[in-house]
């Protein structure tokens, strides 16, 4: 443990500047350009890496580029308060480092690091990684941003298990400072060190966690959110009052229902259903009638304009 701490302190010292590049990595491919992938592409490009951002269609990619530009406009307003020209240049330079494509091989053939941020579905992730394993150089490191699936189970689709780890970002990626870096029992020390270095190079605070369900944050956060949903389903309180209570009584920036809307009800449902299947005896993880109903109605939260709350103007 002591030597691990020493290594991390050395890594932290050598990456005190957020613009310092990780020497092992020049080019990064981010697959999935939704809520998370767009943010991951943004912070990676801001740190100076060239980024390929991949999705299934141009509509998703164009939406991602718009989201990134809006986010950069927001953050540079404060960063370059008195230097609007710098802000314009910073946004342009960052955007220029991002290449969007619907062809997964375009970036995979050239990238040193691949970050997968597609739907929370093990079969979809397996299909993607088994393809990537065939087309990527054998030096390329693979990672998943999964919220709830074991990294080792996703890595079953590839032969390079020593070059597979977890990079779990938080939403909204440009704002949330944390990055959980996950090591499976087969991730090599060299791969893990490179992932920690990458995290620090993009300005995140990294925490280390074994490949246990939910890692650190979600293992604690998800049961709390499930409890809130059950409380509402029992009729103990309205979802608005539960949100108000947790914000004003516990100091959380968002209440649980605002957060579910923010994360996306489809992703929440994937997590609930997956953990219910994985832990059938655990009463914490049960399907929610309300969430199932909202997803069936297409009310996926902020991203669709409506979830528990209505965001349409
Ligand atoms: C049941 C199953 C569920 C399982 C879920 C699992 C999901 C996962 O795997 C892991 C997760 O990500 S969990 C979610 C973690 N995220 C949170 O908890 C966010 C909670 N909310 C917040 O922190 C603030 O409301 C927040 C920061 C969002 C907004 O803050 P405010 O309410 O104060 O609003 P603003 O005043 O508008 O923003 C504050 C500062 O942040 C800047 N900002 C916000 N969004 C941005 C964005 N997208 N890009 C760039 N900048 C952004 C905003 O400009 C402002 O900056 P300052 O002016 O400098 O203060
Ligand atoms: N929403 C959240 O707050 C968080 C989500 N995560 C995880 O990140 C991953 C992505 O979640 P979100 O960004 O919220 O989802 P999202 O639904 O916003 O975006 C997913 C994107 O992946 C694309 N996609 C699906 N299959 C693909 C494929 N085979 N190839 C290329 N693109 C594909 C979709 O078109 C969509 O644009 C999930 O594993 C989720 O559990 C992790 C942390 C927080």
TrEMBL record:
Q: Which residues form the 3-hydroxyacyl-CoA dehydrogenase NAD binding domain?
A: 28-212
User: Which GO BP terms, alphabetically?
Assistant: cell differentiation; fatty acid beta-oxidation; spermatogenesis
Q: What is its EC number?
A: 1.1.1.35
The record's section on SUPFAM superfamilies has: 6-phosphogluconate dehydrogenase C-terminal domain-like, NAD(P)-binding Rossmann-fold domains
Q: What class of enzyme is it?
A: oxidoreductase
Q: Indicate which residues the UniProt annotation says bind NAD(+).
A: 32-37, 55, 120, 125, 147, 171, 303
The membrane spanning regions, by residue number, are: none
GO MF term (any one): NAD+ binding
List residues binding CoA.
71, 78, 147
Marked site (Important for catalytic activity) residue numbers: 168
**Principal location:** mitochondrion
Q: Its GO CC terms?
A: mitochondrial matrix
- Give residue ranges for domain 3-hydroxyacyl-CoA dehydrogenase C-terminal: 214-311
- Report the protein's function: Mitochondrial fatty acid beta-oxidation enzyme that catalyzes the third step of the beta-oxidation cycle for medium and short-chain 3-hydroxy fatty acyl-CoAs (C4 to C10). Plays a role in the control of insulin secretion by inhibiting the activation of glutamate dehydrogenase 1 (GLUD1), an enzyme that has an important role in regulating amino acid-induced insulin secretion. Plays a role in the maintenance of normal spermatogenesis through the reduction of fatty acid accumulation in the testes.
Family per record: Belongs to the 3-hydroxyacyl-CoA dehydrogenase family.
Question: What protein am I looking at?
Answer: Hydroxyacyl-coenzyme A dehydrogenase, mitochondrial
* Source organism per UniProt: Brachionus plicatilis (Marine rotifer)
